[in-house]
């Protein structure tokens, strides 16, 4: 029987409506006071749309379901009093407890860690004034400008509702159909297709607050700010082939790395940095500072280092801590305030609303992981999961005399929270500022700031993603969007996915239109055409191997002394190693074998080290798993260490023959470090190779079978 409700005569139409059947004439912008004003509570369509989205899945998070977390502390370098009156930013001797949750965005709780995706980077500061949440990502921009589009974005990227596939992936028609029609997403797409979309570990990626907030000092002076987390090690990413294989070999790759690093004492460390723009310079730059699809180039707005965060303790219970922690961008302390960023404005409603379903009621702040370290006292009562009485016996209202007027209001000089007195005026409209309509300039800036290998990875990522799209019209629309960013990139992508490149006359027309629009919009404003800070390769310091994991290949007869020397050396430099052999127990009690070839893979290590020993080398030369292990490591441009006669093993592989055939010179030129013994000189060279992470100059790598 057809149970669908029947339309009454005259009700047949194809228009979008509210859940009450009211036709909608605009669902791309939330209701604001003026084009750049705050979102207002009158917007019943936004609230209904977002409320339904927030509650459509229980109990796991709708997004950021798969997470990993750690405890730690934050310590400011110097008082930030000239800029913010927040107490946790004043005293360099004080450690503020923190809890940080890293996550993927799209996949369900059981999905793999290494999928191409944005990574959540959310920090809860347990300050003396109350909890402050910095809820960000590992990318500084976002797909959309207005929160009202968030349900559409997530619906498009989640598994298609009719068949519930694909899982944790954007490589399908729905997502790219949506993106092809949303030019405001182009900047974020460049970031997602870049190496940032497949981080090697949570400790080797940046974090960003994404939105524009405010610092306010004791004199009431306001600065617009953006907050960043910078890892104290170099950033590192997987290559796409690694990411896919790691998802099968160890779907908990990033989660395991975080846990084991902390257990070993290799604590992840990040510096909190801030970009600041004085209130009077709001319109100085060739981008709208309230647009979440735009970043502030560091070359125009330099970073100021604020303090350091150290993650030094793993959770005791995953569910009660990592799963039940509740973040909210509206959890603020005095000295930090909001702006009219329309994406942020929507999150202020959505995050709070989501917790009601996910955690069962309004008292989620009483769960131990969410409970402030500061005193809580108010007149709220009852409700599901109520554990604490925050009011005074019989008195649960204000004002009162029966409890001597307590809890009383805190004056501003006692850090009573007061919002910045921003002037607001304008008509009540659905719209957006003209400056928000520049969708391509920063996408172009990002792409053209990359090195050649990073550009190559972006193109190859687009080949994979769009190659999975079945409808050719969608592929064509995306490629046309790419022509607005960079014509050469668009042509390469087109050729790789079977789309006919545009005629030069059409390309010229597109670029002329983009240029004319941008020049008209930003004439006389400060801008840059190259930003080296956006490139992971250009900012690499290559001065640390902290967190590196080496796979030591050895069989019976291997030089155990070499293995122990290497392990001790790596430990001194806050790195780690595992012994990999054809099977467990080949060394008896002499040496522990950590993994066999059947239980691990080269993609789970940052480098491979082949130990000397005649019998061991001969056994490896006859073992296809050993050969594949090394071939794959070479193909992924990772360092390889060789001691003594270990070089003989590689002399018989296709790697050496290809290197010689291509005239590529010495092993060391390509990150393959060999030595007669495990000497100080050898370890010095090996350190340099490890610190470089990847050796992209291996022109023969694509000919290596792996």
TrEMBL record:
**InterPro entries per the UniProt record, alphabetical:** Catalase, Catalase_AS, Catalase_clade2, Catalase_clade2_helical, Catalase_core, Catalase_haem_BS, Catalase_immune_responsive, Catalase_large_C
Give the catalytic activity: 2 H2O2 = O2 + 2 H2O
Record-linked SUPFAM superfamilies: Class I glutamine amidotransferase-like, Heme-dependent catalase-like
Q: Which residues are noted in the entry as heme-binding?
A: 61, 101, 150, 347, 351, 358
* Residues in Catalase core domain copies: 17-406
Q: What does UniProt list as catalytic?
A: 64, 137
Give me the stretches of Basic and acidic residues compositional bias.
Answer: 1-15, 25-37
- Does the keyword Transferase feature in the UniProt annotation? no
Q: Where is this region: Disordered?
A: 1-37
Q: Which family does it belong to?
A: Belongs to the catalase family. HPII subfamily.
The entry's keywords: Heme, Hydrogen peroxide, Iron, Metal-binding, Oxidoreductase, Peroxidase
**Uppermost EC category:** oxidoreductase
Tell me its cofactors.
heme
EC number, UniProt record: 1.11.1.6
Role noted for this protein: Decomposes hydrogen peroxide into water and oxygen; serves to protect cells from the toxic effects of hydrogen peroxide.
A biological process term (GO) from this entry: hydrogen peroxide catabolic process
Q: Which cellular component terms (GO) are annotated to the entry?
A: cytosol
Cross-link position, 3'-histidyl-3-tyrosine (His-Tyr)?
328-351
| Full protein name | Catalase
């Amino acid at each position: 029987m057809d149970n669908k409700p029947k339309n009454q005569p005259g009700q047949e139409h194809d228009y979008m409506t509210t859940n009450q059947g009211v036709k909608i004439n605009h669902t791309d912008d939330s209701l604001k006071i003026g084009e750049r004003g705050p979102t207002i509570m009158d917007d019943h369509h936004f609230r209904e749309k977002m409320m339904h989205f927030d509650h459509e899945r229980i109990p796991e998070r709708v997004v950021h379901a798969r997470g990993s977390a750690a405890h730690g502390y934050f310590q400011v370098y110097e008082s930030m009093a000239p800029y913010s009156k927040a107490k946790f930013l004043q005293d360099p001797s004080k450690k503020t407890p923190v809890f940080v949750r890293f996550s993927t965005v799209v996949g369900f709780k059981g999905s793999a860690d290494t999928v191409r995706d944005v990574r959540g980077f959310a920090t809860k500061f347990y300050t003396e004034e109350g909890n402050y949440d910095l809820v960000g990502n590992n990318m500084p921009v976002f797909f959309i400008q207005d929160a009202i589009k968030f349900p559409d974005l997530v619906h498009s990227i989640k598994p298609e509702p009719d068949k519930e596939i694909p899982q944790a992936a954007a490589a399908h028609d729905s997502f790219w159909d949506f993106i092809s029609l949303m030019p405001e997403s182009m900047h974020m797409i460049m970031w997602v297709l870049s190496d940032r979309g497949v981080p090697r570990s949570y400790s080797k990626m940046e974090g960003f607050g994404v939105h524009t907030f405010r610092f306010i000092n004791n004199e009431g002076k306001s600065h617009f700010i953006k907050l960043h987390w910078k890892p104290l090690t170099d950033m590192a990413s997987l290559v796409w082939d690694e990411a896919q294989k790691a998802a099968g070999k160890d779907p908990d790759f990033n989660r395991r790395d975080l846990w084991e690093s902390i257990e070993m004492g290799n604590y992840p460390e990040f510096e909190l940095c801030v970009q600041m723009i004085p209130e009077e310079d709001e319109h100085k730059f060739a981008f709208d500072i309230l647009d979440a699809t735009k970043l502030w180039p560091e070359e125009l707005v330099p970073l100021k280092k604020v303090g350091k965060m150290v993650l030094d303790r793993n959770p005791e219970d995953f569910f009660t801590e990592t799963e039940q922690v509740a973040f909210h961008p509206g959890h603020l302390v005095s000295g930090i305030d909001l702006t009219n960023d329309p994406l942020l404005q929507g999150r202020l409603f959505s995050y709070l609303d989501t917790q009601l379903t996910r955690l069962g009621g309004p008292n989620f702040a009483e769960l131990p992981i969410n409970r402030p370290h500061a005193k809580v006292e108010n007149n709220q009562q009852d409700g599901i999961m109520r554990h604490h009485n925050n009011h005074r016996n019989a008195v649960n209202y204000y004002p009162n005399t029966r409890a001597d007027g307590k809890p009383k209001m805190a004056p501003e000089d006692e850090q009573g929270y007061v919002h910045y007195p921003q002037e607001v005026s304008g008509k009540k409209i659905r719209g957006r500022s003209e400056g928000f309509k520049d969708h391509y300039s920063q996408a172009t800036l990002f792409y053209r700031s990359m090195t050649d290998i990073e550009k190559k990875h972006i193109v190859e990522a687009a080949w994979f993603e769009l190659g999975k799209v079945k409808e050719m019209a969608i592929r064509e629309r995306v490629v046309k969007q790419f022509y607005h960013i960079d014509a050469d990139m668009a042509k390469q992508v087109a050729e790789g996915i079977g789309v006919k490149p545009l005629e030069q006359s059409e390309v010229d027309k597109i670029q002329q239109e983009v240029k004319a629009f941008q020049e008209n919009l930003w004439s006389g404003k400060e801008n840059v055409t190259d930003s080296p800070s956006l490139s992971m390769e250009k900012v690499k310091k290559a001065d640390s191997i902290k967190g590196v994991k080496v796979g030591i290949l050895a069989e019976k007869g291997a030089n155990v002394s070499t293995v122990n020397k290497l392990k001790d050396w790596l430990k001194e430099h806050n790195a780690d190693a595992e012994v990999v052999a054809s099977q467990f127990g080949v060394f008896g009690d002499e040496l522990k074998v950590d993994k066999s070839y059947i239980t691990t893979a080269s993609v789970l290590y940052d480098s491979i080290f082949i130990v000397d020993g005649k019998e061991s080398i001969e056994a490896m030369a006859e073992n296809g798993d050993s050969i594949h292990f090394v071939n794959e490591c070479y193909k992924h441009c990772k360092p390889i260490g060789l001691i003594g006669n270990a070089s003989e093993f590689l002399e018989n592989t296709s790697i050496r023959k290809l290197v010689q055939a291509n005239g590529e010179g010495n092993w060391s030129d390509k990150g393959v470090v060999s030595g007669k013994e495990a000497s100080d000189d050898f370890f010095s060279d090996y350190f340099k190779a490890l610190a470089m992470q990847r050796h992209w100059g291996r022109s023969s790598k694509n000919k290596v079978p792996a």
